[in-house]
Specification:
Shape of chain A: globular
Number of helices of chain B: 1
CATH class of one domain in chain A: Alpha Beta
Strand content of chain B: over 45%
Number of domains of chain B: 1
Strand order of the largest sheet of chain B: 2-3-4-10
Distance between the termini of chain A: 64 Å
Shape of chain B: globular
Radius of gyration of chain A: 32 Å
Helix content of chain B: under 10%
Strand order of the largest sheet of chain A: 3-2-1-7-19
CATH superfamily of chain B: Rieske [2Fe-2S] iron-sulphur domain
Radius of gyration of chain B: 13 Å
CATH class of chain B: Mainly Beta
Number of strands of chain B: 12
Order of helices and strands of chain B: HEEEEEEEEEEEE
Oligomer: heterodimer
Structural class of chain A: alpha/beta
CATH superfamily of one domain in chain A: FAD/NAD(P)-binding domain
């Protein structure tokens, strides 16, 4: 950094601008004053997955980073007002509202704009482009009264757009001027196979078709083609490529390329030393890099430039793998085999409609490019051979036809410089370094390096490199739960289920060794409870229970307990509130409202717990399981009953859900919520299971988390009726209970599932494992055998003995002392205890 | 045992103990955590109930187990392990809990005077 508090202004709040700003702000040596200016009114979002807005994603789902990220990083933001002029000499910008801003360094991340071919009639109502969320909103609105939609452009973006139109239920046509689809990335044979796939999906493809004119009638648009044909449609979307958005730079006199693009050097500096350019607006080595990964690399190089570090961008590989309309397509390097002497291996499966081509150098030693259509399983391996110039194996054809495991490249072959994850630029060398540094968990590796958290395409390779490295460094990954069992929690769960083991001595003698410990005992207790729902304080189980389960209350720092009665959905009558108040007064308990819409009563001595609970149970309360790895709360807003905006009865549904799952023991605590409309006042998207009302029913979210490791929940299913909602939650929770590790919240569990969220959806929604009915039956058993543990406890004279402080005295623990603060008691600190003793 | 019995004081009855778990007793102001492991020899252990790390009388409410073959209890506050035989803390060997000479005689739990 040259000066402290340099003013850095970024124009463009797209993916690359965002990446630049957040990367720069996160530099520890950075004291810059950062401002990012976006033309759109929205914060940066994921443009790559735009078409998913018409499937199951909301605009918020596409947002990049958490909502308060800029605030947390100290980045200033200006949205909705474009920059209209730039004066490099004065280092000044003018916004559309005439605001003038000065800068020390300016970064242009203005991206690109959609190219609209100069066809007469291309600007009338019914004609759209496909670039922003606002564009999509306009298309969606027009599609409401439309039957047919035409996309002009059969390239990557055009087909992505066709997918969007199809998702909107339109009869979809793709019109392409060139002879084949995706002509840049695919060879003609690959193009043909792709076309067959797409036509199978009822998308009509017109290639070799030039549109000459678009004519409007009262009700529709007619496309007139050069070949004399016509096509009538309700709407037209132009998606015929992009052009660099370089107008501002052009007007300011910066050097631009003959076909557009702001010329930059390898440090992303433009012809003006104080102005940098990154992403799709920048032209490096006469090329535009229109993919997000190279854009990110440019942003990182630009950050290095600003921070006076030597890191450069010297071009990027434009290989790509994607799913278009559900069809897998991959293109690597020189796809057309246009290099001199290039040789090609091809593979055709006419039954499954798969085409693969691998281009090799004239000497037959290296891969120079590849095309994959219909099956991209071999993409990662081919790409590594290509990028790292690995010599071809003895039978190169095996690279095209191998299936399954054989498609994962042996990690040994890769040099340390090989990029395993190209989205986040993680090399094999970095992974090796992390393993050497003590990382033995794949999830931890992903969290620290971000590897495989972008497109996820490298998951198999990442695991292979990671496992190979662990093995090479002689690290055996022991998944045993503890020294007493050579099994994971999941395996123990299955053992107990299959062999119907119901107690710890049997489990230890049959499958373990020793006495057990504070790891396996609570885990076993939780498994028995999830499977059989026995009373947790039965003699055979009592010694297994962890600190809080042991006394059915939450131990606090001074050894006293807190008590939390269940208040389902946060709904409580005045009479019950009065009871809680009376009990708290009688036993002098400190009271506090919890985040889960309940009331916590602190400072109870062990011997007081049964007395307190007798009063609470007499007033109709049940245990809240605040002490258990179990269902805690189902938070709710008041919903349509009271709220002017509510669309469903969220409290009623929260009550149904809480009463259904109360008492369910699980690998970790479970928190749920139900919101009555999309305003989401119950914060359901931060819960393990979140339910949000829609006009048509309920949207179900899973895997959210607050606390130490916040995670936004994923949308799991939409517009469910009450019955389906419960069925999915039954299956989801029981699948989690069965397969998660101990103390693993649903958020981490989801991420650790091979296949992640999609896999969970397959199991729960599509019942891909055929265990749906079993999961439901298991849950029905838990629901059917529910009992309030505190009710059972106070009715059992033997149990009550356990709640005395001492077996030989009825007195409470004399060492526990309290003082008063803000009209309530609190545990005395050690120096206060000494003072109290002195006074006495 | 008979000599010991003569020189010992009654603490509680065996029925007050929970097999595989802990129970606290108080003797002359001192709090003792008793652990009853019926399948072990000896089957009764007594160590201090005060957890000096957490600063509260809670040891009797911890989970009993073995750690590399040694009988231990995990403090319910911050889960450090203490040996039932000599009171030593596994994680912080400088910390040791007092050990009490307790035994079962007939249906009584006693402590040597």
């Amino acid at each position: 950094m040259e000066d402290k508090n340099d003013k850095i202004v970024i124009i463009g709040n797209g993916m690359v601008g965002h990446h630049f700003a957040t990367t720069l702000a996160a530099q520890t040596d950075n004291n810059a004053d950062i401002l990012i200016i976006g033309e759109e009114s929205r914060r940066a979002y994921d443009r790559v997955h735009l078409s998913e807005l018409f499937a199951d994603k909301s605009p918020e789902d596409l947002s990049l980073g958490p909502e308060n990220e800029y605030e947390n990083l100290g980045i200033n933001v200006s949205l909705g007002t474009p920059v209209v002029s730039l004066n490099p000499n004065a280092r000044q910008l003018t916004l559309a509202d005439n605001t003038r801003l000065s800068y020390d360094k300016l970064v242009l991340a203005t991206g690109s704009y959609p190219f609209v071919p100069p066809i007469p009639g291309n600007d009338q109502p019914g004609c759209f482009v496909y670039r922003t969320i606002d564009d999509l909103d306009a298309i969606r609105a027009a599609a409401e009264h439309a039957k047919t939609g035409v996309v002009i452009g059969g390239g990557l973006l055009g087909l992505e757009c066709a997918n969007a139109l199809k998702n909107l239920g339109l009869d979809t046509h793709v019109v392409e001027f060139a002879p084949g689809l995706m002509g840049v990335q695919l060879d003609p044979a690959g193009s043909d196979v792709l076309r067959e796939h797409i036509e199978d999906l009822d998308v009509t493809v017109h290639t070799d078709t030039a549109t000459q004119e678009i004519v409007a009638s009262d009700t529709a648009l007619t496309l007139r083609f050069a070949n004399g044909h016509e096509l009538t449609t309700d709407l037209v979307v132009f998606s015929a490529g992009i052009r660099p958005q370089d107008q501002l730079a052009r007007d300011a006199g910066l050097e631009v390329g003959p076909r557009g693009g702001i010329v930059v050097d390898e440090h992303c500096v433009t012809s003006n030393a104080d102005i940098l350019a990154v992403g799709e607006c920048a032209l490096y080595d006469n090329r535009i890099f229109g993919l997000v990964a190279p854009g990110y690399r440019m942003a990182e190089a630009a950050v290095a430039t600003i921070c006076d570090r030597d890191e450069s961008f010297k071009g990027a590989d434009m290989s790509t793998k994607l799913k278009l309309l559900g069809v897998e397509v991959g293109s690597i390097g020189d796809a057309h085999g246009s290099a001199e002497g290039s040789l090609a291996f091809t593979f055709n499966d006419p039954v499954k409609n798969i085409y693969k081509r691998m281009n090799v150098s004239a000497d037959g030693r290296f891969i120079t490019g590849a095309v994959l259509v219909g099956d991209t399983e071999s993409y990662d391996k081919l790409l590594q051979y290509y990028l790292n110039k690995l010599p071809l194996p003895d039978s190169p054809e095996s690279l095209l036809v191998a299936a399954g495991e054989a498609n994962t490249l042996s990690a040994d072959l890769l040099p340390d410089s090989a990029a395993v994850c190209s989205c986040h630029n993680v090399t094999k060398g970095e992974i090796v370094g992390h393993v050497a540094g003590g990382c033995v968990e794949l999830a931890e590796l992903k969290a620290t390096t971000k590897a495989s958290t972008g497109c996820g395409g490298c998951a198999a390779l990442l695991k292979s490199v990671f496992d190979t490295e662990l093995e090479a460094q002689g690290i055996a990954v022991d998944k045993s739960i503890c020294e007493h069992f050579p099994y994971t929690r999941q395996e123990l769960f299955h053992i107990c289920q299959v062999e119907e083991i119901r107690d710890m001595p049997t489990l230890l003698s049959k499958h373990g060794q020793g006495l057990g410990c504070d790891i396996c005992k609570p885990a076993a207790a939780s498994i028995f409870a999830s499977l059989y729902n026995d009373y947790v304080l039965e003699t055979k189980h009592v010694g297994l229970q962890d600190t809080n389960d042991h006394m059915l209350a939450n131990m606090q720092k001074n050894g006293t307990y807190s008590v939390v009665p269940r208040i389902p959905g946060g709904e409580i009558t005045p009479d019950k509130l009065i009871t809680i108040g009376q009990v708290a007064k009688r036993y002098d308990l400190y009271t506090k409202i919890t985040g889960g819409q309940r009331i916590d009563l602190f400072g109870a001595h062990a011997h007081e717990l049964p007395l307190i609970w007798r009063e609470l149970i007499d007033a109709g309360f049940e245990t809240g399981h605040a002490y258990g790895k179990a269902l805690r709360t189902v938070k709710s807003c008041v919903g349509s009953t009271w709220c002017r905006y509510g669309v469903q009865d969220s409290v009623g549904t929260a009550l149904t859900i809480e009463n259904r799952y109360k008492g369910l023991r699980s690998p970790h605590k479970l928190k749920l919520a139900v919101s009555g409309c999309t305003r989401e006042c119950a914060e359901a998207q931060s819960k393990d299971v979140g339910v949000i009302a829609t006009e048509g029913g309920w949207n179900l979210y899973v895997g959210g988390n607050g606390g130490m490791r916040p995670r936004h929940a994923n949308l799991f299913a939409t517009d469910l009726d009450d019955e389906t909602l419960i069925r999915y939650i039954d299956r989801f929770l029981m699948f989690y209970v069965r397969t998660a590790d101990r103390l693993q919240r649903t958020s981490v569990w989801l991420e650790s599932l091979a296949g992640g969220l999609d896999y969970a959806k397959e199991v729960v929604i599509e019942d891909s494992l055929g265990i749906g009915a079993e999961l439901e039956a298991q849950m029905a058993n838990i629901v059917g055998t529910y009992q309030c543990e505190w009710k059972a406890t106070i009715e059992d004279a033997e149990q009550l003995k356990r709640f005395r402080a001492f077996a030989n005295s009825d007195e409470p623990d004399p060492s526990v002392r309290f003082v008063r603060e803000r009209d309530q008691k609190r545990p005395a600190r050690s120096e206060e205890i000494i003072n109290l003793a002195v006074k006495e | 045992m008979s000599e010991q019995y003569l020189a010992a004081s009654y603490l509680c009855s065996v029925a007050d103990l929970v097999p595989g778990s802990g129970t606290a007793v108080i003797k002359d102001g001192e709090q003792i955590a008793l652990f009853y492991l019926p399948s072990h020899e000896p089957c009764l252990y007594g160590i201090g109930n005060y957890d000096p790390i957490g600063g509260a009388n809670v040891i009797s409410r911890g989970i009993v187990g073995d750690h590399g073959g040694e009988l231990v209890v995990a403090s319910p506050l911050y889960k450090q392990h203490f040996s039932l035989r000599d009171g030593r803390c596994v994680e912080e060997p400088d910390i040791t809990l007092p050990v009490y000479p307790v035994a079962i005689v007939g249906d009584q739990v006693v402590i040597q005077d």
